[in-house]
Amino acid sequence: MTIPAGLRRTVLRTQRDTGFLAAGVLPHLALVPVWAWAAATTARTGNWLLTVSVSAALVLLGAPVLTAVQRVRYRVLIGVDVPRPAPAAPERRTWASTVRWLAATRPWRRIGYHLLLGPLLALLELSVLAVAAAGSAGVIAYAWSWALPTGIRQGWFGCLTQLPAYTAVGLLLLCALPWAARAVARAEARLASGLLGPSRAQRLQERVDQLAVSRTDLIEAVDAERRRIERDLHDGTQQRLVSLAVNLGLAMATRPDLPSDAREVIARAHLEAKEAIAELNDLVRGLHPAVLEDRGLDAALSGLAARTPLPVRLRVDLEERVAPGVESVAYFVISEALTNATKHADAMRAEVTVHQVGEVLRVRVTDDGLGGADAAGTGLTGLAKRVGSLDGVFHVSSPVGGPTTITAELPCAR
Amino acid sequence: MRAVIAEDSVLLRVGLIKVLEMGGFQVVAEAGDAEGLLAAVAEHRPELALIDVRMPPGFTDEGVRAAMEIRRRRPGTAVVLLSQYVEERYAADLLSANTSGVGYLLKQRVADVADFVAAVRRVADGGTALDPQVVAQLLLRRDSDPLARLTPREREVLGLMAEGRSNAGIAQALVVSESAVAKHINNIFPKLDLPVVDVDHRRVLAVLRFLGASRA
What we know:
The complex is a heterodimer. Chain A is an alpha+beta fold. Chain A is about 70% helix and about 10% strand.
């Protein structure tokens, strides 16, 4: 005879759940004797101070052991991993740190689980086990009734009428067992995750910490990549182009006897090589200027402003250098804003101010151009995103007719 | 005149040697990094050192530091720094001690061979050669002091003076007569509060004031 797969699964699962519940009874009742002893001793001696402190010590020492036992029980028997709270930062054990540990919610939540919830859970577990036992006994009522002494069995009035009822009730109980065992096991797992694991606030805090670290890593990786590209271009392509331009310049300077059309070709190639160098310089600067790394924002911005075709008034007011990531974003914002002012806004002049207010680096770029910049355009959205990557605030004010003002506030606490 | 070259790109080094030789210099040594440069200067005692700013191992401002070291050890050596980008901060470091026999030029200027040779020669003769971009940056930074009193034309003239050009050179660059240039310069001096003592001396003072090096 084959057992249907569904039924077999239910039976196996019920076995597992019931075993899990049975294993929970002892650890859940483990602290009850402590209570009982404390109550009994206090009643006998009247010295409640002693009993309360002794039982408190026992509970405090026992809770971690019980927590460990429960973790093993959950993992081995029903495959549930009760999340572990993040290990606290290593700290020297002092009275102050112990008091802090006790004041934190975590130990109290655990102790509450073992001390108060434990006995209640044990009751639930015992009732499920009772259902299992009663159900099994009822179903096989006929079998064991035969084991009763003949006299009793025949003299028992209810023998014929009650036995079928026992069997029926047993069947009902056994049918309810999978559901009950499942429900209690699930409830226990949820309670344990909530009370033995980190609290919701702690989990969120851990997640936030993780995300902050991974985001910082990502930003640094992108920055490093940008610097690598800058260096590759600088040490390779740019040098070759300069060398090409120098050689073409030499050709023109040393061979004045060439036919005029050949000279013209060389002159054009010379010009184009120089233009290519200028273009590449601009491109590399946009990536990550070396001087930004060496000398900081002030030096890099003065270079940027000098290269901008419009007059730029530059004010940089910084007491000390800020974090490289912040410098990089500030430079990028200003560089893009000045490019926009030159290319699109038809501006006559621009003003750049950078100053630090407390732990915020405030960057402001104003031009007297046409205005009407589209804050949803790709360029400005990109800037907003880069500022956002540092939890900064980005704002564009550009009414049609101008002026356009771009501000960015970048947190720069070190 | 004897020169040493420090430039880590071999291709460019070859080009630079040709350009200098064309200008009548004799290249006695070449180096690929700051250490090699200092050794070559100590050994050959050249009149001129042509130095790339970014060199191994750090590729930041090794050339600037080496140049300052050379100026400290052998003050008579003329130094021309070549940079991919002109950063006035690097130039200011170099100029804070002394402005004679110092040059700071963009690498791409080398391509205009005749101009470049003229600039290097000027430095070798004890003059100054600053890239117009450095001058633009310096001008930008000091817009609140007496320079604000100058007319745009006078600022142009002062800028060219700071680049190290003579009156004739300035006149050529601005396409005006030499006497017009002299008139502008005579207007600049009182505006910068420079007393009438000696014209050449005041010229240096004006440039120094312009560069902000007088404060250093």
